[in-house]
């Protein structure tokens, strides 16, 4: 049996983030955070996996998203949490930039 691909969901126009680094969005019923870092855009779950802090209030720099509550940070390549913290990685979703806007596949 072939594995079913998740549906593509259009997030909005290509310039949806404008000049922002972080933008909260809802896609497929999930609260996500679009993150622009070093010319790329990724989507992450919006709530910190530690205690649910709103990561849209955090800060992004150097490929890392910092939680505003406990100052732990997440690597935007694989979602891993900074050393010294023992909770699961942040869920990340690739964002596709197409001629008709930004798209995501949720798994």
UniProtKB/TrEMBL annotation:
PROSITE patterns per record: RIESKE (PS51296)
Domain of life: Bacteria
Protein name: Rieske 2Fe-2S domain-containing protein
The keyword Metal-binding is assigned to this record: yes
One function term, GO molecular function aspect: metal ion binding
One matching Pfam family: Rieske
Organism: Methylobacterium terricola
Keyword Metal-binding annotated: yes
Keywords associated with the record: 2Fe-2S, Iron, Iron-sulfur, Metal-binding
Location of the Rieske domain: 8-104
């Amino acid at each position: 049996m072939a594995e079913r691909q998740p549906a593509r969901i259009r997030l909005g126009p290509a310039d949806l983030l404008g000049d922002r680094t972080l933008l909260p969005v809802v896609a497929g019923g999930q609260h996500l955070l679009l993150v622009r870092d070093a010319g790329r855009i990724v989507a992450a779950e919006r709530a910190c996996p530690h205690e649910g802090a709103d990561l849209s209030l955090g800060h992004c720099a150097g490929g890392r998203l910092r939680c505003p509550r406990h100052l732990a940070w997440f690597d935007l390549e694989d979602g891993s949490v900074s050393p010294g913290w023992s909770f699961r990685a942040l869920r990340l979703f690739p964002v596709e930039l197409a001629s008709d806007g930004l798209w995501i596949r949720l798994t």
